[in-house]
Amino acid sequence: MSAIVSRLVQALMVAILIGTATFVMMRSLPGDAAWRIAAGRYGYDNVDAAAADAVRAELGLDGPAHMALLQWLGDLVRLDFGNSLVTGQPVVDEIAHQLGASASLALVAVLLSLVIGPPLGILAGLRPGGRLDRALLVTSTGIKAVPQFLVALVLIVILAVQLRWLPAAGHGAARHFILPSLTLALGLAAVNARIARDAMARIADMPFWRFAQWKGLSERQTLLRHGLRNVSVPLITYLGLQFVTLVEGVIIVESVFGWPGIGHALVHAIFSRDVPMVQGTALVLGLGFVLVNAAIDLAIRHLDPRTAA
Amino acid sequence: MSLLQADDITVRDGTTTLLAPVSLRLDPGEPLVVLGETGSGKSLLAQALMGTLPLGLEAKGQVTIGAQVLNSGAPDQFRGLWGREISVLPQEPWLSLDPLMRAQAQIAEGHCLVRGLPPREARIRAASDLSELGLADAAARYPHELSGGMAQRVAIAAARAGGARIVIADEPTKGLDAARRDEVANLLLNEMGQSGGLLIITHDLALAERIGGQLIVLRAGEVVERGATRAVFAAPGQSYTRDLLAANPENWTGKAAAAPAGTAVISSRNLSLARGRRTLFRDVSLDIAAGQVFGVTGPSGCGKSSLGDTLLGVIPPLQGQVQRQPGLHPFAFQKLYQDPVAAFPPRRTIGETLMDVVKMTRSDPRDVDRLLDGLGLQPDLLARRPGAVSGGELQRLSLLRVLLRRPAFIFADEPTSRLDPITQARVIKLLTNATESDGIALMLVSHDQALIRNTADAVLPLTPPCDPARAAAKKRVAIALQ
């Protein structure tokens, strides 16, 4: 119960911090915001001083900062995220539209990473120092060391350009999912394979693992009955932290593959100083982090009765 | 027909022989105890019989279990016998249960996967195993919700669920107090019954005596003596066995009547102490005078160590006062720790650590040599690191370090519980001699009542905290044993 309350407080703090921070950041960016917004609305070629002034007057960009901030946070409390400065559509509608695309991409990526990473990690952890363990260490360190946009480009060059197996970009069909989700999944799997490997190696060294074998269980039965559940606890805990990596990855990967999701929208909103959109997307991502971690807390409490005590 | 027969088991590490040829047989209903100090090779013997020797060690010899003849040099052959013919009771039952699985499921999986019963029937059998052991209400509990004694019983039931008739127990009473030790001994004997086999590996003389049956005494990888346990205990044939039995605190000569106590170095009045919400003890008043040995005894968890820490001023009391003799430096109140390995910095030589103390106290470096001599320690130990020194030597070195501070009071917290009997007797002797000759007040804490009885001038028995679950469970076991 107290865990849920603390997560609610956390969500509130996240909302206030993101609201204030995005506001301050957007105000302090160099350049005339009115010009950029006008350019976003009408196109760079059609902007003149009159259009910029019209935007300035409409949005009250000249007013004192603290008043604007209070109004800003007040709107947040009423769950009113305002309209996009560029399209004029309500931010909520825009985000709802993009969030679906991002969430499905992220979900596929997480599932894919769980198919790749933990099984390899568990196999490596059962034979620490073995060939698979060493190969996995090198591979996962290598993948983690390469920036994600480069991984994306390498995959595009090999699988889309050279082999012509998959589309390089696009959205709509199932095959469009493969490259962007694989890019994200490799980055996630590189880490959760290590987590699974370390957890497995630690568990296989514990007295209860040996005891399970002495009881007469086979290697396979020991793994299924006493290994997986115990490995899943640190793995799921870490999944909550990986959400941060996932958000970073989504922003980059969506831009590279032209995926019409929330990350893509965030980048565009920043370019065109669409402050309500920036805030809305950042808020959704921040609250998503709290929500995911709350769900993980509950899952861990269910899996590991010791944490409930 | 014996259950298990082993012929000429040897264990070697490369060219070093760790265990000289040992033969033994295990008969139904007659337990076999292998007794020895740390490093005697007794655990290696058990591992060779199980096929669980660590990598790099090589075993030779023949093991006959039932109708099967196995080569102990080929450990893979043993795998199929685990749980079905031989079962092992682990040293630390608490850590041997899966922390995320309920007690009953851990037993039922043996019935189901090893013995081959259908899942439903396996659950029923597991539930009846538990209620036979007086643990009917523990079926749905997780290991962290079990007491140590309950975990031990669950582990025994889980080990035997596969149908194995032979139980090998390696130090089953490590770190247990006398009451719990007898409880475990009875439980193992009861589980063996008339048709099972029981092999116990231990350094605990009281456990060996309690188990009875046949005895093999091992020392440095060689059999010193063998025979019926009762006969060997009554009339040991070898001088080593005699030393070993004499080292049993039960057999120590009691302490001579104490001289009248002088002024108290440390005293407490109406001391009460709590850990969390649980009260450990109430109204403890004591006086410890110079040269006096004050014994504190009681089962694990009753607050023995906390009492000592409170006297030292490390833990604040809940109520009451502690008075130290005025005019003494705070450093004159010292503690001797249970685990000497943990009490020394691992990556420095012992000499360096001791010289730090000499520098800090500005004492004479020759004190170290004098004390080394007095404690029967070789000077070349100073060049080694803590990991390269035996437990008994290291505990004497940590006594040396405490004595360097010229203490007025030493709180010795289970100083010998990790040492084997002969070493224990030696360390206790040195400790009491040193404190007596230097006029140091000693508070000796131990779970071993015989040790305290035969060492201390005054004894404070601490009563166990009330734990209804355990008390009830104990009663049921007693009924089951009748």
From TrEMBL, chain A:
A Pfam entry, by short name: BPD_transp_1_N
Location in or out of the cell: Cell membrane
Keyword Transmembrane carried by entry: yes
Chain ranges passing through the membrane: 7-26, 103-124, 145-165, 177-196, 235-257, 277-296
Entry's Gene Ontology cellular component terms: plasma membrane
Membrane topology reported for the UniProt record: Multi-pass membrane protein
Domain of life: Bacteria
InterPro entries, alphabetized: BPD_transp_1_N, MetI-like, MetI-like_sf
Domain ABC transmembrane type-1: 99-300
Keyword Transmembrane: yes
Record key words, sorted: Cell membrane, Membrane, Transmembrane, Transmembrane helix, Transport
Entry's Gene Ontology molecular function annotations: dipeptide transmembrane transporter activity
Matching Gene3D superfamilies: MetI-like
Family of this protein: Belongs to the binding-protein-dependent transport system permease family.
Protein name: Peptide/nickel transport system permease protein
Source species of the chain: Primorskyibacter sedentarius
Phylogenetic placement of the source organism: Bacteria, Pseudomonadati, Pseudomonadota, Alphaproteobacteria, Rhodobacterales
TrEMBL record, chain B:
Domain ABC transporter: 4-245, 266-481
Regions crossing the membrane: none
GO cellular component terms, A-Z: plasma membrane
Subcellular location: Cell inner membrane
Primary location class: membrane
Superkingdom assignment: Bacteria
Key word Phosphoprotein present: no
GO MF annotation list: ATP binding; ATP hydrolysis activity
Name listed for the protein in its UniProt record: Peptide/nickel transport system ATP-binding protein
Organism: Primorskyibacter sedentarius
